[in-house]
């Protein structure tokens, strides 16, 4: 049954990313980067930064609202929260922001993330939040790349999904980055041969299967659907943003089921139930790909294809704008635009509804953004234009 | 034998698995099972979600199973730098029929040419070392 309290009752009205910096080179701490992103997102929306009264983030974000109030001139902080766990929490953060708005707890809520190695830790260590289990570290498993590699290896060898689907995910992202002047990977001409010849990181992942690490800040601003009509931009209405984990999932180290899952069992079903739409209705998708193979799992779990049909669906031609069946990661995504723990995918999902992407899908009315795959708890969001409300 | 891993404790994860590591230090491979409903529970936890019991039995399990998944690491990441000299190295997730399909991680020992999902493996226990961060470690080898 459609969730009438949350479906289309709020909208993203402002988006902004700072420039992307190679990790450690921004010369600014994360707090300053996120302030820049928030002020610029407020300008984009046409609201004064001092009006922002709600602050929501996820993962290891430590730049809380109370720390930013003096710099934003915040009139009153009315709502603040951090959503579990890692990048899986991004759409859930949007959902929590929307909940705060529709229940009257806050009026202008910013959802944001910033990371910087300037005065900060190595980003990939920061993102892991010191929560890697002994069973992993003792046996030589540290990076998300390795943990995701285990899942994708199972997807390939036991579920029969062709390894070529990983390559085509990467090729689609790098293809889109070529047209995005902000993308850090815009000058990389990735073809099948360059991909295959690139070094292994953790099999089945090559270098180009893995997301980047960048210093940057990223923010989006939500208000009620009613308020959104009076602001500067075409609203991107939030139709739904469920979070969760099915009974075989949660924190189970290597014993979760199905093992190849990105975590969206049940969660994706609830997205379609909450919004009244299905995978066949989606015009464009930003699929959080910490690693390409997890993006393939996310596509399968959202019902775009079955494991058996993945080879046919996940092809370069089908994944690129403007004419693919499901253009994905149209900014270049975490692989080729830049990585701030997945947050910039929200901005790109919104730009597709506005019609301002550098790889615009014509008449994009339904825009999907899936959260960090493989997280013990994940979330997923669907945006709509007024025409699809 | 004095427990070594307590001095090197890794704090991530659930943190209910002390008995697993203590057993390995004693040279025994044991996995937890609910004392009441006998459900295997791995990774270890504090309460059985099936019946509500707070008691676990740590039972010896045969170190024999099949590769459920694996990866060959071509890079020693930040917190596993101790393995830099082993790169590339294979890590195996083994599924153990002796514990209702519990999946236990271990670095591969011996040749890695036959590594593939479904292949039979046998395990042994390595004593604590710097490479395994002061913990004892399960190792899996492909059965010819
Ligand atoms: Zn029980």
TrEMBL record, chain A:
It holds the Pfam family Thiolase_C_1. Residues 267-371 form the Thiolase C-terminal domain. One of its GO terms (molecular function) is acyltransferase activity, transferring groups other than amino-acyl groups. It comes from the Bacteria. SUPFAM superfamilies: Thiolase-like. PANTHER family: ACETYL-COA C-ACETYLTRANSFERASE (PTHR42870), NON-SPECIFIC LIPID-TRANSFER PROTEIN-LIKE 2 (PTHR42870:SF1). This is Lipid-transfer protein. It comes from Pseudonocardia halophobica.
Automatic annotation (TrEMBL), chain B:
InterPro entries: ChsH2_C, ChsH2_Znr, NA-bd_OB-fold, Thioester_dehydratase-like. Residues 21-53 form the ChsH2 rubredoxin-like zinc ribbon domain. It holds the Pfam family OB_ChsH2_C. Transmembrane segments: none annotated. It comes from the Bacteria. Residues 58-122 form the ChsH2 C-terminal OB-fold domain. This is DNA-binding protein. It comes from Pseudonocardia halophobica.
């Amino acid at each position: 049954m459609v969730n009438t309290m949350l479906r289309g009752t709020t909208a993203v009205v402002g988006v902004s990313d700072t420039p992307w910096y190679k990790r450690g080179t921004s010369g600014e701490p994360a707090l300053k980067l996120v302030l820049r992103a928030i002020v610029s997102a407020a300008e984009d929306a046409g609201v004064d930064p001092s009006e922002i009264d709600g602050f929501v983030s996820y993962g290891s974000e430590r730049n809380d609202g109370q720390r930013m109030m003096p710099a934003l001139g915040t009139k009153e902080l009315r709502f603040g929260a951090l959503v579990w766990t890692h990048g899986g929490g991004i759409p859930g953060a949007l959902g929590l922001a929307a909940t705060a708005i529709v229940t009257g707890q806050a009026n202008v809520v910013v959802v944001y993330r910033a990371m910087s190695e300037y005065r900060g830790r190595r980003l990939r260590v920061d993102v892991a939040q010191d929560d890697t289990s002994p069973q992993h570290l003792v046996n030589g498993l540290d990076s998300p790349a390795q943990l995701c590699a285990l899942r994708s290896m199972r997807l390939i060898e036991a579920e029969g999904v062709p390894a070529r689907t990983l390559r085509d995910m990467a090729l689609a992202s790098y293809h889109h980055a070529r047209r995005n002047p902000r993308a850090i990977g815009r000058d990389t001409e990735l073809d099948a041969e360059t991909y295959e010849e690139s070094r292994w990181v953790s099999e089945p992942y090559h270098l180009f299967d893995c997301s980047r690490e960048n210093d940057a800040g990223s923010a989006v601003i939500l208000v009620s659907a009613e308020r959104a009509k009076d602001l500067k931009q075409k609203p991107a209405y939030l139709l739904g943003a469920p979070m969760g984990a099915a009974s075989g999932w949660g924190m189970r180290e290597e014993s979760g089921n199905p093992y190849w899952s990105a975590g969206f069992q049940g969660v994706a079903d609830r997205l379609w139930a909450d919004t009244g739409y299905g995978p066949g209705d989606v015009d464009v998708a930003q699929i959080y790909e910490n690693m390409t193979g997890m993006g393939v799992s996310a596509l399968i779990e959202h019902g775009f294809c079955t494991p058996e049909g993945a080879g046919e669906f996940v092809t370069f031609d089908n994944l690129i704008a403007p004419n693919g069946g499901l253009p994905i990661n149209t900014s270049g995504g975490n692989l080729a635009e830049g990585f701030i723990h997945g947050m910039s995918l929200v901005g790109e999902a919104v730009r597709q509804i506005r019609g301002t992407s550098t790889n615009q899908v014509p008449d994009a009315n339904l825009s999907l953004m899936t959260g960090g795959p493989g997280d013990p708890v994940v979330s997923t969001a669907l945006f709509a234009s007024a025409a699809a409300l | 034998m004095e427990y070594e891993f307590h001095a090197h404790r890794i704090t991530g994860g659930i943190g209910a698995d002390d008995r697993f590591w203590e057993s390995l230090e004693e040279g025994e491979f044991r996995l937890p099972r609910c004392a009441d409903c006998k459900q295997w529970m791995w990774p270890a936890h504090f309460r059985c979600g099936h019946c509500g019991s707070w008691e676990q039995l740590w039972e010896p399990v045969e170190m024999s199973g099949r590769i459920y998944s694996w990866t060959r690491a071509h890079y020693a990441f930040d917190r596993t730098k101790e393995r830099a000299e082993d790169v590339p190295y294979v890590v195996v997730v083994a599924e153990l029929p002796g514990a209702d399909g519990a999946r236990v991680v271990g670095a591969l020992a011996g040749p890695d040419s036959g590594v593939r999902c479904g292949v039979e493996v046998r395990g042994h226990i390595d004593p604590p070392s710097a490479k395994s961060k002061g913990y004892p470690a399960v190792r899996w080898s492909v059965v010819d």
